[in-house]
Amino acid sequence: MKNRIHYISQTLVVGFLTLMVVIDIFPEIGINMSIGIMGVVTFIVLAVITRQKGEPVFNSSKQKLIFTLFFGIYIFSVLIILTLLGGASRAGIGLSNPILWGLFLIEVLVSYTKYRRELKQTSDNDNGTFQ
């Protein structure tokens, strides 16, 4: 039961983050930003409380790299769709924001470097050499 609540909490955090982006781009929909903020905070706290203690968030660096790529694709897809629907961000969160692209590229490079290091270490251990 605890794992199910944890999974649902993580999913709802992504949903409320998406809602916050929609509210930022289309403020005329009439939903207050504080609803999105309260939802994100509530479900992050619930996810932290229901997380299995001692269990890593990602089991491998490959899993982290895949998560980073898919989450980036998701965020940029949402931004593309909302922009095509005629929206414009009030906070500057958009496809032309160099900080957003920079953070995404840095995270991908860091994840990829860790993945390559783990892959090399695994192949070295299979060959009988240890570092």
Structural class: mainly alpha
The shape is: flat
| Helical fraction | over 70%
Oligomeric form: single chain
Biggest beta sheet summary: none
Alpha carbon gap, first and last residue = 41 Å
Number of helices: 4
Task: Classify the beta-strand content into a percent band.
Answer: under 5%
Order of helices and strands: HHHH
Uncertain regions spanning at least 5 consecutive residues:
none
Residue-averaged pLDDT: 89
DSSP, total strands: 0
Radius of gyration: 19 Å
Give me some keywords for this one.
flat; mainly alpha; 4 helices; single chain
Layout of strands and helices, then pairs:
Blueprint: H1 2-25, H2 33-50, H3 61-84, H4 98-126
